[in-house]
Design goal:
The chain is an alpha+beta fold. The protein has 17 helices and six strands. It folds into two domains: about 25-95, no CATH class; about 145-385, no CATH class. The chain has helices at about 35-40, 45-55, 75-80, 90-95, 115-120, 145-160, 170-205, 210, 220, 250-255, 255-265, 275-290, 305-320, 325, 330-355, 360-375, 380-385; strands spanning about 1-5, 55, 60, 95-100, 105-110, 125-130. The protein has a four-stranded mixed sheet, with no helix packed on it. The chain has a two-stranded antiparallel sheet with strand order 2-3. The relative contact order is 0.13.
Amino acid sequence: MRYRTPSYMDKFHCIADKCKDSCCIGWEIDIDEKTKAYYDSVDTPFAERLKKDIKDGCFVLDEKERCPFLNDKNLCDIYINLGKEHLCQICSDHPRYYEWFGELKEGGIGLSCEEAARVILSNDFSLKETEIEEEEDLPDYDMEVFAALEKARDMILEKLNETGEKKVPLEFLLSWMLKYGKVLQLKLDEYSAEMEEIQEKVISELPEDAQIFGETNSEAAFGENPSEESPFGADAKTHDDGIIEEDDLAQFLMNGRVRSTLMAYFQTLEPMSNSWIPFLEMCDQVNRMHISDTKWLDEINSEKYEIYFRRLASYFIYRYFMKAVFDLDAAGKIKFAVLSTYMIWLLARCTIELTGQCDFEDLALLAKNYSKEIEYSEENLEKLM
């Protein structure tokens, strides 16, 4: 099968004890059955620790929420005593993520890891593919919808990563993405309704004994080979006219009261760390001081920062957009990408006001914290998606 990842993925390596925010602290880790069976079979002196510090298939965190196998040098005792190959699946994979679409597997590195954030921010976005061994238990999806969404994502990523004269200012591009998402969603909704109508018609015409096997799938309804023509229609590919004239998001960015409302909403979400809400409160206070200043964001709207926000937007689009093939919510995926890019953008401006700077390391830490609070909380992700 094909395996697609960002080109920068191979540049990521865990920095272990050098990490300022270890993923071995504050996270409840479920141990997969295969690894748990191996831990149960260990008969060395280390087995006593495995029995004592693993309960109900999870590592028992200490009073400081540290993994019991994270030693005082911030290194993993399981890695040291049993080897890298015997880490549980979650510990081995993190911060990598994967998604399966039939014969295609997509992967990447998650922004919630500080070293992954550095890699994401410091590298231009592009994709590469390799061939890997076939994997089983792959989810079903509509091939026509997938093909159309893939083309749409390719176009969005291309625009986010354009250079030279073709490059559009990011605030206008994010605004266009929201409009394009609306067009896509309308087409998706029309296609979904049409598909349901066709399926109901096919089912109604089946002999009664055939219906006991359930509804027909899209292959039966549409044929074995998906059409090359996008089910969204040609207009979904060409709705980039007037991209520079449409500046709703630029106006939104200048509206201090809207920014404050957004800050307030984020403070209602479930926090993952004790420092997150106080940080948002400080940022909100800074924003309120500049609520009528339409030039306040100019410092963060420079070429110096824009390349980083383009890479962040590319990350969010790549990671989440194709999930729409399963729930048909393309607009929601684009809105989340735009909102996340904008919030990190806004928090970076507040950081400059609070500390006097927001350099590359500051921005990587900020993006990591946002990701940890939002992407790795199912409840928060569901509210914002």
